[in-house]
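Tutorial handout. Part one gives the primary structure; part two gives the three-dimensional structure as tokens.
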Amino acid sequence: MSTTTTLLNGLPPASRDRMMKVATEVFLPAGTRVFEEGQRADQFWIIRTGTVVLDLHVPGRRAAAVETLGPGDLLGWSWLLPPYSWHLGAEAKTAVEAVRFDATIVRALCEADPAFGKALSLRVAQVVAERLQNTRVRLLDLYGPYGGELGRRV
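Part two.
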């Protein structure tokens, strides 16, 4: 099981309950641009159903798909670190049901309760680390001297 599917489950029950009290259920039709690279990161989601593609702006070309997220995955982590702007763009590849969180409210909860803030920050950091590792393996598959073989040995 990936760390993304356990973002909230990895928090103490009281912290998880606190998060769910500020959550909103949302539906995103297929093709919806969820956010754009460089825009203010003021919310984040946990995907319940469907898929979202993270993409990177490429000048003069169509956005390049970087990763596909699905059920249980955290969509968006740029809300946690200043300057609170998206590093990538995101589009609903299929219809998506998700739980949305207002980043300003969650950051205020983190400031009011440092133990909660630390626990949530560590969970998000685990998600980021996992995604960086996955990206590393994909790059080795594409560009490594042994193709996919090296990426699977690491």
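Part three, for discussion. The CA atoms of residues 136 and 151 lie 8 Å apart. The first helix runs from residue 13 to 21.
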